[in-house]
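Translate sequence into structure tokens.
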Amino acid sequence: MWNIVSYYTVKLELDFKDFFMIYDVIIVGGGPAGLSAAIYASRSKLSALLLEENICGGHVVTTNFLDNYPGFHEGINGFDFAVKLEAQARRFGVKIIYDKVLKIDNECIKKVITINSIYEGRSIIIAVGTHVREMKIPGEAKFKGNGVSFCATCDAPFYKNKNVLVVGGSDSATQESIYLSKFARSVTIVYRGSKLRSTKILYDKVLLHKNIFIMYNTILKKICGSDYVEKVIIMDVNTKKMIDLKIDGVFVFIGLIPNTSFISNIKLDDVGYVLTDENMCTSIAGVLACGDIRKKRLRQVVTAVSDGAQAAVSAQYYIENL
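Result follows.
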């Protein structure tokens, strides 16, 4: 969230030349995809500016333990990983300014309009990611990253032989439930409807797993515990009866929201994800998109940094042919 501290940080970092410089590439978003793009762009001697609203790192900052990124055989804390990425980008010379982007002007010399300024660049890489759709119930914020998760691929191994709860009835929820069932003692799916919204093939696969249970017509109302999640309170939507259930972890899969509200004239899918080709090129020449913001199947740190590298290379090719 934009605040007075962020405002004065921007003022300290801005210098006179920023108002007149045309960057080779402006990267919007400082998550793993944006930082990876910054590393590759700066290392290729492109003048690169990265704009980030809050803190570099994106969702990974809130991950207690990143266990599946290649090269860290003992795992790494998400915040520490983000710090290393940012430091590496700065080492190659990228300029990082904390500012909120309001609009992108997709002319030949492209403009990024923020709260504090207007920046010009020959190309733009959009890497603003998504934000998870949260339940907004008691206990969710308290245990986020420490019992409440939004990614089974990231955190399932921490729940070996434990009891977990999955909220949601979509393809994502059922796929993640199946994955969780490989680790957890039991997986209980809580869904407000009388039938899961997932495809039949996924639903049939769920039924094959004896440690997956489905509670239809139910809503998760509260997550309880002291230092860790200990139980949840579930409500039957028909009878309004409250049910206490001992649970070690809660996985929420009620949707992701792409951060594309400031984007115009670029083709999006029906949900709002940016449509790109394999080179991260969007429908506008010189505008690339990478990471979770684009339409794709797997949204992981490893795929985000790959996208970022490709976007930087595509930006370089675009600039060389102007």
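Note: Residues 1-12 have pLDDT under 50 and may be disordered.
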